[in-house]
Amino acid sequence: MSNDELDQAFSLSVRLLEHKTYHDLTHQFISILMEFEGVQDAASYEIFSLTRKPTNGVAANIEYLVRRFPLSLDENVQDEYSHLIDQVMQQNKGGIIRLQDQNTAYLALDVLENVKPRRVVLIKGELNTADYRQLEGLFQIYERLVILLDSKERDNLTCLHNRQTMDLILNQVFEYYQNTGVACEDKRSWVALLDIDYFKSVNDTFGHLYGDEVLILFAGLMEKTFRHTDFLFRFGGEEFLVIINRVSKEGVSQALERFRQEVEQCDFPFGKITVSIGYTFVNPNVDQRSLLEYADSALYSAKTKGRNRIEYEDQKQPSVSNANDIEFF
């Protein structure tokens, strides 16, 4: 490798290392890829695998959902590269994969291990030998940064996304509705706050290890009940948050009620617990803080009306913080 190639490799690597979130890192990576001679297009995807169990000795089929980057809220993205994603999933080997389609060359950069969801970057075009060597090095850096940032953006106990990541993703959801002009009346996104009832008494009676086990099981119920296209977070303490995407008011009500029942029916280590839920719709015309205050107002209403219930805030009245007026535990 010549001195010029080394200088370029160092410069490109620094550009990747400057970014502290997966969102910004991937924007920069795609921007760098588009600078290579021969690259016609580059796109990034998040892939959620759904494995069917084998029956009667027949091997399991693999189904998956795809979300395109930057954020798409469609349930399963279908675009001009969908058939190439199929090929990547069939090979299932990670790393840099060469693909060919109708005399057009593609490269798939597959981050397979240690992240959830799986990340794939598709490159349309052919690289010369020197640029391919640069790409190999850049992909190693990108892959390790994706794994590192995925760990950083998750809650250590429950492995759900953390509060900091929630701020970033909620902003992207706002931008999606602002930029696409999608009609909001039929299928909206919704923000719901989920609070475990009387959680403090669990810690006081059984100890924090039991409390941690409750939080882990509760997070597992969230992952089991909500869709792959929804976003799940540990908001703080015993409070969780879910962004439910592209459903009607009836649909979100059914989803939240299904989850409330799952919690109520689950056998936790010491017995039963319940959850109170407050939710509202994502309104791109209000700021994030106001939106969370609306959801919190609905949660407060659920608590004051007896807990183990779901309440909705329609945003017609100014949100009011009542956190100091009621004991939630």
Estimated share of beta-strand residues: 15-25%
> How many individual helices?
9
Alpha carbon gap, first and last residue: 63 Å
Poorly predicted regions:
52-60, 321-329
Strand ordering within the main sheet: 2-1-5-4-3
- Which whole number gives the mean pLDDT? 88
What string gives the helices and strands in order? HHEEHEEEHHEHHEEHEHE
As a whole number of angstroms, the C-alpha radius of gyration is 22 Å
State the total count of DSSP E strands: 10
**What helical percentage do the residues reach?**
40-55%
What is the global morphology?
A: elongated
Largest sheet: 5 strands, antiparallel
Q: Kindly name the structural category.
A: alpha+beta
What does this structure look like?
By secondary structure, the protein is of the alpha+beta class. It is built from nine helices and ten strands. The strands form two sheets. The protein has a five-stranded antiparallel beta sheet with strand order 2-1-5-4-3, with helices on both faces. A five-stranded mixed beta sheet has the order 7-8-6-9-10, sandwiched between helices. Helix 6 crosses helix 7. The N and C termini lie far apart (63 Å). Mean pLDDT is 88; it is low at 52-60 and 321-329.
